[in-house]
Amino acid sequence: MSISTSCQQNFSKVFGRESLIVARSPGRVNLIGEHVDYQLGWVMPFAVDRYIECAAAALVEPEIRIWSSSIGGAPLRIALNDLRALDGSDSWANYVIGVVAKYAEAGVEVTGFESVIDGNLPLGAGLSSSAALEAVTALVVENVSGTAKSPSDRSKLCQAAEHDFAGVPCGLMDQLAVNHGRVGHALMIDCRDLTLTPLPLPEELSYVMVNSGVRHALADGEYAKRKADCEAAASMLEVTTLREATLPVVNAARESLGDRLYRRARHVVTENARVEHFAEALTSGNRTALGQLMAASHASLRDDYEVSCSELDLLVEMASRLGAVGSRMTGGGFGGCTINLVPRDDAARFCEDICRTYRETHGQSVEAFTVAPVDGAAIL
Is CATH 3.30.230.10 what the domain over 3-198 is classified as, yes or no? Predict the structure, then answer.
C-alpha cells in the first residue's frame, strides 16, 4: 500500500470523512558541507525518495487536529488562538504547531484543518524528517488558507518554526533541500545569498544510506553548543560568521582561540573548501577526489567538531573496506546515518555486506538502503 493510500484511509478512520489534500515532502541527505549552513557556508544536499505525507481537510472550527500513524491514540487538538509549544510525548507536534504559528505571524489568515501524518522516512536518522514534516504542514496551511509562498519563503518560515517551537537553532539547508529538490541532482547552496545551483549526480553511482540505529536528539543542547562555539570564534576573529574566515587566519589565531574554538573554526573553513572541491570533482567525474573529500569531511566532523559517534565511525571504516567510493556521516550527528557512494552494479552486494559485517563485528543490526535524488515538496 502506498503512503498516500494509507494516509487517506487513516484520515477516513480517524476523522470520519474524506481528506481533500495530500501533501508530500521528501527527506534529504547532505553529500558534503555539514554544520556550516548556520555559518552561511556552502552545502550540497539532495532530496531523497523517502517521504513524509499529510492527508488533510479544512475545518470551520478555529483549531487544528493532528494525528500521526507512528504515535496513534487520539488526535491532538490545538486552538488557533493558543498556538504554543507542547511538552513531553506531544512535543513532536511542535513542528506542525510552529509552522502554523509562523504563517499566522506572517499575516496569513490561517484556516483550521484536520490532518493525518504518515511516511517511510526514518525518524531521528539524519534524513531531515523534521524539515519534511514542516514542509507538508506548510503546504497544507497554504492550500486551506488560499495563499502561496515560494519554496524559499516557505523554507524560511519552516526554519523559524524549528527555532522557536522545537528549540533547534538550525540553518536553512534542510528546509531548502526538501522544498527545492530536483530529480537527478544535488543542490549546491550558498547559505549566505541562498543561491542554488543544481549539479547532476553520476548515474553510474548508487547512494546508499546506512542507518546506525542510534537516534540523535539535536534539541538536547549539543547543536546549540556548536553554534555558540562558532559564534564565539567568529567574534574573536572579528568576522560576522566563519564563512568569512580563512584557514591561515584561523591558524594564526590558534593560541588565542583555545583548542576547542580553534577546532570548531577549522572544521567550518575546511568544510566550506571541501564543498567547492567536491563540486569540481563531480563535474570532472573524479571519483578518487570524491572519496578523499568525504573521508576528510568525516574526520573533521569526528575530531574537530565532535559530532560523530563510535557507530558512525565504524560504519565509515567498514564502507571503505567494502568498496565504497566514499563514505561519511551525514546530518546533525550523534547518531543517524552514513552516506555512501557505491558503484551502481555493486550496491546490492554492498548493502548485504555492510549489514552482515557490522552485525558480526558489533553484535547489532543496521539498515542499508539506496536513495535517489527527487523533486521537492508538493501537493499530490
Answer: yes
